[in-house]
Design goal:
Layout (H helix, E strand, L loop, with lengths): L5 H6 L7 E2 L2 E2 L1 E2 L10 H14 L9 H21 L7 E4 L2 H15 L6 E5 L8 H10 L2 E5 L9 H7 L4 E7 L11 H10 L3 E5 L11 H4 L3 E5 L10 E5 L1 H6 L10 E4 L4 E3 L13 H16 L2 H21 L3 E4 L8 E6 L4 H9 L3 E2 L1 E3 L4 H7 L4 E5 L6 H17 L1
Helix pairs in contact: 2-10, 3-10, 4-5, 11-14
Bound molecules: 4'-deoxy-4'-aminopyridoxal-5'-phosphate (PMP).
Amino acid sequence: DNTFDIVKIRQDFPLLNKSIKGRPLIYLDNAATTQKPQIVIDATNQFYSNSNANVHRGAHTLSDDATELFEKARSSVQGFINAKHSHEIIWTKGTTEAINMIASGLAQSHLKPGDEILISAMEHHANIVPWQIAALRSGAKLMVVPINEKGELIFSTFKKLLNKKTAIVAMTHVSNALGTINQVKEIVRFAKQVNAITVIDGAQAVAHCPVDVQQLDCDFYAFSGHKLFGPTGIGVLYGKEDRLEQLPPFQMGGEMIKSVTFEQATWNELPYKFEAGTPNIAGAVGLAAAIDYLNSIDRVGAMLHEKRLMNYCLALAQSMDDIHLYGTAENKTAIFSFLMGDSHPSDVGTLLNQQGVAVRTGHHCTMPLMNELGISGTVRASFSLYNTEEEVAMLFAALTKVKTFL
Ligand code: PMP
């Protein structure tokens, strides 16, 4: 743990020095997006300053250089999640696009009337709505596994809902609204017993837990670069080779074809079949730099640090009598989702912002979950490896002040 140096870590992120309303920024909105270390900013700038060209198509050195960087970035992602092949890594603009690719493709190629798609009650809209549409198009049915009062998946009901009509199990690795870490390996193991295709939404997991897709044995895994200290507009769809081979392409155009006549076209090989058009090359290069960054720090130390922040946060929350916490699973990431007395979350958020504390308020793109909880939204402080215990203390000092206003 002692090789995790929080002072040094904070120096790597230039934006953390910013002031908001004359006070030092306390950035606790990391589940929405993370700040970027200097090496990510530099890698993106370097790409545009030194290597910018289109990929895979030039007959010139610069294009070859850009292609090499782009494909090297793909290999970095492959290593990061331990995929078997680099062509199992598809660039997308984020988790949302990745899940849309899978849902839209499976609606065409796999789902039939009467099939069931199993999701959980804690899904983000990005892992609900694409499946609703896929169900509508194919005649399949969307089924929902409920959660208990701690915000954990009720595993016994999950097992009961699995049956031979279950075609797809699509679940989040970590809940963005509650922080619950799902037992995805077990979810996949049981789903496979009924031959369901497994899709894991890893948006909230990759920055906090080690992810090994071969160990999880899932068919698909999706995540976004921007929640992993990388740029916005770049994300990843991982798919097992045979599943990707069977999946129809999502968008049509340049780069994704093998041959085209005016009558028809044939598809390019993986991964290019899913990468129509000029991709976000600088984004991929930036994401690879973010992975380099994570590989350069003590990640186990970072995880312990986040755990410490969460425990401190929970202790301070208990000392205030009117904080109601949502998401009390033992196995959770450092997400503190709460309501204070009967105050409206957005009022709390606004008053925190005036004190330099950045949180998110509202339904967090999980409206069905909020309905289950019987609330319209929460205040969410979400921590990252660069947050400090002093910042946790300052959040509670600010909350104490908020109470005097409300
Ligand atoms: N799933 C979860 C669990 C998320 O937290 C998010 C981002 N809030 C998404 C999906 C969508 O990610 P993106 O907006 O980067 O596509």
